[in-house]
Design brief:
The protein has helices spanning 18-33, 36-48, 55-65, 68-95, 109-116, 118-141, 146-157, 160-187, 194-224. By secondary structure, the chain is mostly helical. The protein has a single domain (15-224), classed as Up-down Bundle (3 helical TM bundles of succinate and fumarate reductases). It contains nine helices and no strands.
Length: 238
């Protein structure tokens, strides 16, 4: 069964429906850009994994991924798409349009549960990502050395309110992604059936839970030196 609610291409529509097609393009673009944080999350997980090998390993990794080319690539593939998503999200809220992941197509309890909080989760996810960029990424652009970034993370994440904020923010980002991923894949033309959307949503929820555990463990390690869910012992190279 076809389940996509996104309209066909504008060339297939009569001229009286061109305005509706334009709205459809914006909604399709919104759905695709709403899953941009997934790529940034996966990149950050790979980049920051060196934290589990200690401070020196992390500093070496940051020096390798903090060059001009890497920074421009991160801006083009992550920061700009997320900014565009933020703009379309604000537009949807002002015009009271549905946002990706907030409208279900009779896909069962999991979809209903995720969509119920999706407008709030998406807004909180954007606020958390904005705070994260201002806290760590802007100083990096302004020339902060990796050692300064590490010290700032360790100093801030050692505070209980910062650990709580990260737990809440990570939950919002990953809830948003779990709910929005089927709509994003549908807008890209990769999902066309209800069964495909249900499968994608299940995979998205499992992926979100796994990412939450890994990122929370990483944040706990930086802030407390022991991890969040299980203890970590770093063995320094001899």
């Amino acid at each position: 069964m076809e389940s996509s609610s996104f309209p066909k291409s504008e060339s297939e529509l009569p001229s009286s429906e061109k305005v509706a097609a334009h709205v459809g393009r914006l909604e399709r673009t919104h759905a695709i850009l709403a899953i941009a944080p997934l790529g940034w999350a996966l990149f950050h997980l790979v980049e920051q994994w060196s934290l589990f090998r200690g401070r020196l390993a992390w500093l070496a990794q940051m020096r390798a991924t903090s060059g001009n080319f890497a920074t421009l690539l991160e801006i083009a593939l992550a920061v700009l798409p997320i900014l565009a998503w933020a703009g379309l999200h604000a537009r949807a809220l002002v015009l009271r349009r549905p946002i990706p992941g907030s409208v279900t197509r009779d896909e069962g309890g999991l979809a209903l549960g995720l969509s119920a909080l999706q407008p709030v989760a998406s807004s909180l996810a954007l606020l958390f990502l904005g705070w994260h960029v201002v806290w760590l990424w802007v100083p990096k652009l302004l020339g902060a050395a990796p050692v300064e970034t590490y010290d700032a993370m360790q100093r801030t994440l050692g505070l209980p309110w910062a650990l709580g904020l990260h737990a809440f923010g990570l939950a919002a980002v990953l809830w948003h992604l779990a709910a929005a991923l089927p709509d994003g894949l549908t807008a890209m033309g990769l999902l066309r059936t209800d069964e495909g959307r249900r499968g994608a949503r299940t995979v998205a929820v499992v992926l979100a839970l796994a990412l939450f555990v890994l990122f929370a463990q990483m944040v706990g390690w930086v802030g407390t030196g022991t991890g969040t869910f299980w203890p970590i012992e770093v063995v320094q190279p001899t």
